[in-house]
Amino acid sequence: MLPAAAEPAAGDSWGMLACLCTVLWHLPAVPALNRTGDPGPGPSIQKTYDLTRYLEHQLRSLAGTYLNYLGPPFNEPDFNPPRLGAETLPRATVNLDVWQNLSDKLRLTQNYEAYSHLLCYLRGLNRQAATAELRRSLAHFCTSLQGLLGSIAGVMAALGYPLPQPLPGTEPTWSPDPAHSDFLQKMDDFWLLKELQTWLWRSAKDFNRLKKKMQPPAAAVTLRLEAHGF
Amino acid sequence: MALFAFFQTILLLVSLSLRTCQSEVLSEPLPLTPESLDVSINSAQRCLHLQWRVHSLAYHQELKMVFQIEISRINTSNVIWVDYYSTTVKWNQVLHWSWESELPLECATHFVRIRSRVDDARVPEPRFWSNWSSWKEVNEQNSLGHKASSVFPVDKLVEEGSNVTICYISRSHQNNVSCYLDGVRMHVEQLDPNVSAFHVNNVAFVRETGTNIFCEMDPKDDAGTVLFVSKVLEEPKDFSCETQDFKTLHCTWDPGSDTSLVRKQPYQSYTLFESFSGEKRLCEHKNWCDWQIAQDSQEMYNFTLVAENYLRKRSVNILFNLTHRVRPMTPKVFFKNISATNATMTWRVHSTGNHRTLLCQIELHGEGKVIQQHNASIKVNGEYLLSELEPDTQYMARVHCGDANHFWKWSEWSGENFTTLEAAPSEAPDVWRDVKSELGNRTVTLFWKPLSKSHANGKIRFYNVIVENLDKPSELEPVPIPAPANHTKLALDQCSYRIHVTANNSVGTSPASVIVISGDPGNQVEEERVNVTADGFSLSWKPQSGDVTGYVVEWCDRPQDGSCDLQWENLGPNTTSTVISSDAFRPGVRYNFRIYGISTKRIAYLLEQKTGYSQELAPLVNPQVVMSNLTSHSFTLSWKDYPTETQRSFIRGYHVYLKPKEGQCHPGFEKAALSDNSVCCKYKIDKPEQKTFVVENLQPESIYEFFVTPFTSVGEGPLDAFTKVTTPDEHSHLLIRIILPTVFCVVLIMIVCYLNSQWMKEKCYPDIPDPYKSSVLSLIKSKENPHLTIMSVKDCIPDAIEVINKPEGSKIQFSGTRNSLTETEITKPAYLYLLPAEKNYSGPGPCICFENFTYNQAASNSGSCGHVPVPPTAPSQRGLLTSLENLLKALEKNYMNSQGEIPAGETTLNYVSQLASPMSGDKDSLPTDPPVPALCSEYKMQMAIPLGLASPPLSENSSVSSVTLLDQGDHHH
């Protein structure tokens, strides 16, 4: 130890550098130095928003592959079949006035519930997929969707909203209905992907709205100062 | 028994009586109408199952009948099928008949009716049809359920190549119905307002999720179905079973196409059935299945492999004796006793049961090729000695075994790599030498070629070189040279040396290669040219009689860059020719080959030397030609030889090109076209050693252009610029012969004259003193008479020149310097004091003096120029003194006056003209004795002398005939 103390080795230099870097890294976390304070749910909402956009992009590719796997007419761009067997899917479409007047809590709850259901359905879809490549893509997307669900849960926790508890025994499943013809089953798959796409569009708007709403009130202070001027 | 026989007879009689009775009945038309018609539907199979009875038959009556069945679709009048069914009908028998519809039964209502007719030979003609049964309606349209429309069949599974009819049913009337099969619109036929249908022949497999059929109409009511088209199940191919351990039979097959369809049909199943044991096993894998061999030593097996999917079954069968289906297990291989040339391979084949004899194949691979193949018969353990191996070589040996008695299949190969040990090098290295003598010492470079792998027998670590002095025996010291060096240098004196070179690896030493470096410098041989063939340089030499143990041919692979890269080839004593080829040979490079004979004492002596080109190339440069001996009719061209190294081919001679003056070639020249299409005269010099050429028969004062290029077997040198030469005129040489010496002489004279210019000047044109620049003037100016001036000569017009022939003894000569003047100032007259003596006086000699007497206007008192007559012999001193006094007075009076200001009557200038003042004696001292009288011819310049200074008190012993002012050394022009 003595020689090391007298003449620092190269390893000690690196250690000191690492220590310095660690200190610098943690400086923002030191309350006295952290001038920004608690960032609030803003960053979480931003991350959730970014995630929805990413999933939108990812789904576009996945849906293309899956609909080709189903074959025509499901992979045709103007195919718009009746929503026969997809009643159980959570609907993303909503009246504009209703959507605008949604409370933050309800907005987040709807998102959370929708993705919880959609995730279950998607996992069912994955189980039935015939090709390994498709199963891999679906599994990857499910993981991402799980991340989105966690992100939404994080925003809700940050805002102090409780997570909706699923009723026991009502776990949604996406298994082929024996009464359903295979064509209807394919229609369900089609609608699942379509509804998922719509939900991601809607969520992007939901979180964009929340993001704007949660911005720091700096602009409001400026406005008050201007009012005093009058 | 008797009772039984009795009853039997009774029954027969009754039966016969009844038959007789029936025959009577059948003779009349009977109302045998089908009754209790029941129609059931199998939608999946698109089948209608009909069952009915014929109640009218008597008890136990059997009657051959034919039934006519009519099937109508949509309505009863639309009969789509009429069929006849013949059968023997028994009493109370339920009859069955099925019909398969091409249209799914859900698509339309079907109606069925039936009638019958006796078709029995026992019934006489005419026979009549019964009445039709009532129409039976078959309706599956309820399958629509709550849906507004549907497409049928639903999720139908068919095989590839089937024909399928699809229908589209809606509750509302259909308009503009469009149906698509996998995106392709189909031709639809409307069966009724609510039903459309289309037919697909020979359906193809598209994807495992099925072929989608989608129909739409106006008003919008879409529906679809999936037609699952399965690939046709194939019969399993290459089905076989074998055992390795008599415990398990491993059966394999090629399953063929995958017939699975997503959510419809799983992968086809395979079931193994053994008929002798009656056991069955559903196989879990697509292409193999293991069957456990029972302990009861069943020998024969009859296996049936059944492939099955929802649509069909395919099966294959094999029957075999278990002992004929033995494939031994993969052996485990080991090596032992590996030496430089041998290795023992051992292997073990695990349990094939009952210690069966196995036939094994052993393969030895070296460098990727099979080099040995052996067979061995073993029970369980095998051993084989692999011999004739190369030392330090990696081999791979592998083995596989099969049943020797009933060969079925070889086992898997099992192999291992092994490397043999090293051995001492088996051959002496191939050694050659290069000897360079310099200042009595010799530098011998020994070269050796690396031993081939087969001779090195391992990694060569070093070479030992032993130098043995044959003239002075001494202790031999081996010098190790680490590999991979391939040469070493030795500095040797003029003694003979024997050099031993051995190669050494970790095991031992190779035989020594011996070479003797003789003290004899060796002979010189003439160089010859070598023949070149397509294979290389073809060398041959004269066979040497006597003790030649072999020949060596050496050459440099790279002579062009100076590195040489010495190569050699050893040849046997009976060889007198060889062909040398090398990838390093380049066209246009001269290669020299030296052929040495090797004596029994291992001394190499040069036999022949050959040179040649692998391919000759045209010269790239032309010689530097020097033109000389230019005359009006000829000139000489000469050039130097090329360095041999730069020659790209053998030079066979030279072409001298000369551009003719008037289109005619000189004798010996011939016309030739150059590469630039110009025509000129060419002279061919056939001897390459001729390096000069005289161009003759030229015209004087003419311009000729010449150009010299070498020619070879492949062409001549490049076309360079011609050099111009102009022949001189015919007489110019004569002129040169005259002018040059003349000019030389003139120049010589001029040089001589220049060197003796002073002398010449003195002799021929001495300087005329300039009175204005005389030092006298400065002295006068320093005196009190500032008006004194010097008379200009031009201002005086001499009126008489008197030539006086001075007697020798009367001539007064003055000499001396200023210094001497200073010393003699007191004793000598003043004017003498001012006149420096002549320098470089050559001595007394006879001369003629021309004297102008000084004119003194003041002395004459006449106011005009006059002359003072000087007595020819001894002028009176008085008179002279008087005149001098007058002169001095005049000078004192008028010194400061300028010439112009001086009034004519007051002119006091004296003019003394003189050429020279012959003086004798020491110039630094005044002559004390009268000079030796000499005849002189001299002209004395005249000058004006200030009167104040011109009062030379003549010494008594001096004889002065005139006043002479001599200053030859300091006069100025």
Automatic annotation (TrEMBL), chain A:
Gene Ontology CC: one annotated term: CNTFR-CLCF1 complex
Gene3D superfamilies cross-referenced by the UniProt entry: 1.20.1250.10
Keywords linked to the UniProt accession: Cytokine, Glycoprotein, Secreted, Signal
Any one GO molecular-function label of the UniProt entry: cytokine activity
InterPro entries documented for this protein: 4_helix_cytokine-like_core, PRF/CT
Signal sequence extent: 1-32
Major localization listed first in the record, in broad terms: secreted
Keyword hit for Metal-binding: no
Gene Ontology biological-process annotations: cell surface receptor signaling pathway via JAK-STAT; positive regulation of B cell proliferation
Cellular localization per UniProt: Secreted
Oligomeric and partner information: Forms a heteromeric complex with cardiotrophin-like cytokine CRLF1/CLF-1; the CRLF1-CLCF1 complex is a ligand for the ciliary neurotrophic factor receptor/CNTFR. The CRLF1-CLCF1 heterodimer binds SORL1 (via N-terminal ectodomain); within this complex, the interaction is mediated predominantly by the CRLF1 moiety. The tripartite signaling complex formed by CRLF1, CLCF1 and CNTFR also binds SORL1.
General function of this protein: In complex with CRLF1, forms a heterodimeric neurotropic cytokine that plays a crucial role during neuronal development. Also stimulates B-cells. Binds to and activates the ILST/gp130 receptor.
Family membership: Belongs to the IL-6 superfamily.
Protein name: Cardiotrophin-like cytokine factor 1
Species of the source: Equus asinus
Source organism phylogeny: Eukaryota, Metazoa, Chordata, Craniata, Vertebrata
Name of the coding gene: CLCF1
UniProtKB/TrEMBL annotation, chain B:
Bilayer-crossing regions: 734-755
Residue ranges of the region described as Disordered: 951-973
Subcellular location: Membrane
CDD domains, A to Z: FN3
Principal subcellular localization: membrane
Mode of membrane association: Single-pass type I membrane protein
PROSITE patterns, per database record: FN3 (PS50853), HEMATOPO_REC_L_F2 (PS01353)
Keyword tRNA processing: no
Protein family (similarity comment): Belongs to the type I cytokine receptor family. Type 2 subfamily.
Protein's name in the database: Oncostatin-M-specific receptor subunit beta isoform X3
Organism: Equus przewalskii
Taxonomic placement: Eukaryota, Metazoa, Chordata, Craniata, Vertebrata
